[in-house]
Amino acid sequence: MSSKLLAGLLILAQGAPALALADADPAPYLAKLDSEGDRNRVLNQMEIGTRYFWSQDFQGAGRSFDDCIQNIELVFLNDPSVVKARSLWYEEGAKTFKGEPYERAMVYYYRGLVFLAQGDYENARAAFRQGTFQDAFAEEEQNQADFAVLYFLEAWASHLNGDKDLRDEALAKVHALRPDFPGIGESDDTLALVETGTAPRKLGDGLDHSYFVFRRGKGFTENRAELVTAGEQLPLYAMEDVYRQAATRGGREIDQIIKGQVKFKRAANDVGSTLTDTAQVVSALGGDGTVSGALAGVGALASILSGKAKVKADTRTWSSLPDRVHVSTFASGKLGMQDLAVQFLTDGTPTDQPTQQLITIKDPRGRQLALARSR
């Protein structure tokens, strides 16, 4: 961001900061940039960028996410010239972390939010669009992108920029995914964005942890949020479930990921389990016990050999992502900003977490971004 834009950025921190990152200090990850090198460069920049963002260091966040994007787009870009590079990366360079599709999409989510905070709506829109493209990647297949919060933010950036046709085009995609979303008011000038919960987890599973599965983050119960102002509660719309984005591709539920390859639910079993299952069927049908025993033995051996041949699953994870994202837009003149706070809920019931005041950022063009995070 230029010094002129920085000078124009007005940050109004209202009371206690909404940032609740347990380990908000980026220093450990800055040290890892040198010690871990290119292998974990993107992962460490993701962690650093998140901490800068929620500390309202938007210059630092922008640098970190730009570095992520530069490295991601060496392999994942909608350009025929990088298809071969992507193929080679899958074959030879997968140990260099580039993130799963939902993690790469969230890089563009935060980069776009930084642009919004700086009043650069066109670059914000471009970032959100690029994020939906990353969501569409699934190896060399192009699945339908369904990252609703990115379409919503694209619509919001176009709304702020006065591009009504582009706003409505993006909103149509939001409504296709979230039919009950109330939309954006013509006079709305403020976006409230609240993140809840903790990042999806990647867990090694199977023999020798040869593949990994996704599980929802733990240590939290909140799954909803609402704004509180002057004694009135205003619901925030639950726009995105980040865990669901991790655990699905184009709406199809992922069962496991083996060496970077997605296995969907109801996928065919591998040779080892198939032979073992066949033995069980033979036995159930009253077949020769010798035959079924031999088949079971071969199946078990095949499974063991297969397991020993596989590399250990890569469970590196962007740990500072949220579980869900909630949004609301409104006209600041109709809603008092001085006492605007957020209350976290579990299935409609307030949690025991204290109500937090939002951090409100007024960009150089006078529009506002109000942020909060539960953890």
Task: Note down, in words, how this protein is organized.
This protein has helices spanning 3-8, 27-36, 41-54, 58-72, 83-93, 101-117, 121-136, 148-160, 164-177, 242-247, 271-284, 289-309, and strands spanning 10-13, 137-138, 141-142, 190-196, 201-205, 211-215, 224-229, 232-235, 237-241, 248-249, 252-258, 261-264, 324-330, 341-346, 349-350, 356-357, 359-362, 368-373. The radius of gyration is 23 Å and the shape is globular. It is built from twelve helices and 18 strands. A hairpin with a 2-residue loop joins β10 (248-249) and β11 (252-258). The model is unreliable at 1-18 and 267-310 (pLDDT under 50). It is α+β, with helices and mostly antiparallel strands. The strands form five sheets. The protein has a six-stranded mixed β-sheet. The chain starts with a helix and ends with a strand.
List the defining traits of the structure above.
single chain, 375 residues, alpha+beta, five-stranded antiparallel β-sheet, 12 helices, TPR-like_helical_dom_sf
Query: Which class of secondary structure composition applies to the elements?
Result: alpha+beta
Q: What's the rounded overall pLDDT mean? A: 81
Number of E-state strands: 18
What sort of overall outline do the alpha carbons produce when their principal axes are compared?
Answer: globular
Number of helices: 12
The run of helices and strands is HEHHHHHHEEHHEEEEEEHEEEHHEEEEEE
Low-confidence stretches: 1-18, 267-310
> What's the helical proportion of residues?
40-55%
> For the terminal residues, how far apart are their CA atoms?
28 Å
Strand order of the largest sheet: 1-17-18-4-13-9
Q: Sheet bearing the most strands, described?
A: 6 strands, mixed
Over all CA atoms, what is the radius of gyration? 23 Å
Q: Beta-sheet strand percentage?
A: 15-25%
Oligomer: single chain
Protein name: Tetratricopeptide (TPR) repeat protein
Keywords: Signal
Signal peptide: 1-20
InterPro entries: TPR-like_helical_dom_sf
